[in-house]
Structure formats: C-alpha cells, structure tokens
Amino acid sequence: MTGVAPQAPPRLSHGDITMSTHTSDTATASHAVPLEGQRAGDGPGRRKMARTKAPYWFLSPFFILFGTFFVFPIFFMIYLSFHVWNPAAGLSAMQWVGLENYSYALTDPTLWRSLRNTVVIALLSGVPQHLIALPAAFVLVQLGSRARHWLSVAYFTPYVTSTIAVSMIFYVIYAPHSGILNQTLIYLATNPVTGWAFTWVADVMPIRWVQDNALIQYSISAVVFWKYVGFNIIIYVAGLTTIPKDLYEAARIDGANAWQQFRFVALPMLRPFIFFAVTMTIIGNMNLFDEPYVLTRALEQASRSGMTISNYLYRVAWQWMDMGSAAAISWILFFVIAAMTWVYFHLFGRKGLEGN
Q1: CA 29, CA 51: separation in Å to the nearest integer?
Q2: What does the pLDDT look like over 84-96, one tens digit per residue?
C-alpha cells in the first residue's frame, strides 16, 4: 500500500500577506478599548450638550434666589389679597373673601387721607429738589474738578446716611423747647440787628413742628428734601459732564450768557437724566415710610396728617395683623405708582428720553 505524502501548506504571495495584515488591523481598530476615564457613550454630541448646559448651572443660584424672594412673593401677595389671614393663626386659618379686601380698602377714608398726605409731602419735597438740584449741578460743573469733587461728596453724604439716624436728628432739631430750630428763631428775634424781621416769633413760641397738624407735613418734607436733594445733584452733574464743551463754546460765541447756556444747551441735553431723576423721586416719595414713622411715632394726633400710605399699610399689616387687607393696599399702591409714572412719561414725551 502506497502512502500519500503530506501536502505542504499553501504559500502566500506578497499581496496576500499585505491584505491579511490590513484586515487584522482594521478588526483590531474596530474593537479598540476606550481610554481610561472615558465612557463608551461619550461622544461629541454629549460633550457639546454638557458645554451648553454649564452656563445655566452657574446661573442657577441667581434664578433660585430670584424665584424665592421675588417671583414667589408677588404671586403669594396676589393670592393673599383675596383672603383674610392672621399669620399668628397659621396658614390653615386663611379664608377666601374674594374682592372684599379691595372693597374695604377703597372705601376706607383713612386710606384716602394717607394717600393725600403722601401726595402733598411728595410735592412739597420733590419739586424743590429738582428746582434746586438742576442749577446747583450746573454751577458745580463750572467749577474746577477738585472743588466739584469735594462739594459732590458733601451733597451726597446725606443720601448715604441712615434714614433713621437723619430722622432722629431732625426730631431733636424740631423739639418745641430745646430744639435748635426754635432756639435759632428766638436768637434772631432778640438780636438787635435782625429782631425787626422776627417780631412774630414771640407770639407763636414754642412752635410745635411735629406736634401740630398744620406743620407736620412741612417738617417731614424738609427732612426728605435735605436727604435726597444731593442724590439728584449727582445725577445732574453726571449728565452735564456728558455734554460736549463745544456746544457751550458755540453758544458763547453767539452771545449767550450763563442763563441762556443753561436754558438752551444744558436742559435739552439733560432730558433723559431729568426723566430718570423725577421718576425715582415719584417712586421714592410714594413709598415714603421712615421719616414720617420716626417723627410721628408717639404722636397719634399729628400722625393723622403725617401718616403716608406706607405707614398706613404697616399699621394694617403689623398692628392689626390683617395681612389680606395689607396685601390689597399694597397692590393699590403699586397701581397708583404705575399710573403716576405712566402719566409723567406721556406728559414728558417719548422724545424726552433722547437728548437733542
């Protein structure tokens, strides 16, 4: 029996070896092991999405605080204005009353009296603020930079001073017997040089500046004026420094004096700043609370003429513990301020926001 000789394995050509090697490398690459720290699902799309979400994660603390302390209180105040609620009794004591809180507030004579007091004090303190702040700022700009800076600091100091501290200082100044104001009037009345102009002082002393219903509004207005006139001066100084000096030089060449430069050059260019300053005055005076509260805190009779709508709101909320009515009054105050601002905006004119 003849044996069959074993066959030798087939010889691969150079082209076959190259193809086999290329196929093996491709298979190895298709099953590559992910790098350390990289997940198999991490692709360009997922990384791009992570990059686009990162800014929102950094902004999330702001949105959380904004929603907690601004958005939520607004909607809760709307909800609360339709309920009767004493916070001492807990949330379970809240009762739905519909529009009863608004009806009660709008028919309450104390609300309208406090609103009238607020408007009177706002006019007595707000109008002089701007009538004095505008020319004072114009004079400051004409001075040298060093004098302007020092005077600006002096004018602005009352604004950054504590309102409670300022009100208490004026409470001492207004004291009937020992107050600086009455003592100054007595000195002027007894002085041989100025006595002829103050003969009336002896008939009215002691003047009760915060105890008299006829004087309390003027006394509060003086405090508000003294505290906030510096703020308006700084606003107008900032506006005047943006006006090109070429306009003043051209006006002087045309023969304009200081008043004409102020009237025809400065005022038209200050319209946006005037609009901002007056709007802030309206909002601030309609929310006036600290000054009348400190000056009339122990004077029930005088507080009737010095009580602003914010003081009345505080009394309803924290003395009578009627949070539902207080919420309704706060929304009434909001709409009053919004209406006054809207009227002022349209009276001022849209083009008033643009300097000529």
Answers
A1: 29
A2: 988 888 888 888 9
